Amino acid sequence: MSPSRLRGFAAAVVSSLLIGGTTAAVIALPVVPFQSIFQAEAGARWIDRAAQAQAESKFNPRAVSMVRGKDGQLHPCAYGLCQFTPEAWGDWAPKGADPYDPAAAIKAQCRYMPWLEARVDGELDPALGGYNAGLGNVLKAQRLAAQLGLPGDHAWLVALVRVTGKDNAAQTAGYLKNNAYNRATIRRKVAAAMNGAE
């Protein structure tokens, strides 16, 4: 293949990353771990879902989050690449799937997130808030923000302090910020890969 045809092929491969891509494109030029799975499960939303998994576990499929119980001891509470609790895993994962299996975790995430988004008018940040703090808490915070007349798209996040407490609301705010940073970083990597292939 001539150098000019090779450059054109590479540009086409990278361009496919921006619109969902194929397994071949992912093998040719991945910018995040498990990219082919994110693309297969999330399609055009793959960057949103990959950024979320990065925020959840830094792409570690063996990650375990701990929470301090009433007994004062640390106990495991969420598992795997997308950090599902056992209850949520039972609701959204393929039957019999292992929470440490990246493909199963991404499949569960890509089932759960659209369900959350559908309950918060299709908005990503409140859905991410629901994933992190619980959908019920976000819905309560949205209602409270409306009652108080708080302005802005993230008024619910201000009101969340009254629903979950200051520390938990701050954790959710940090989670949203981390997600936004990850999305921007992944998009920059895709753009840089695309420019490098031209």
Form type:
globular
Our count of helices gives 10
Distance between the termini: 16 Å
Strand content: 5-15%
User: Low-confidence segments, ≥5 residues, pLDDT <50?
Assistant: 1-28
| Spatial strand arrangement across the major sheet | 1-2
Q: In terms of structural class, how would the helical and strand content be classed?
A: mainly alpha
Average pLDDT across residues? 89
Kindly state the percentage of residues in helix: 55-70%
Order of helices and strands: HHHHEEHHHHHH
Largest sheet properties: 2 strands, antiparallel
Radius of gyration: 19 Å
The total strand number stands at 2
Could you explain the architecture of this structure?
This protein is mainly alpha-helical. The chain has a domain at 119-188. Helix content is 67%, strand content 6%. It has 10 helices and 2 strands; from the N terminus they run ααααββαααααα. It has helices at 3-18, 23-28, 35-42, 46-57, 86-92, 102-118, 124-133, 135-148, 155-164, 166-197; strands spanning 64-68, 74-79.
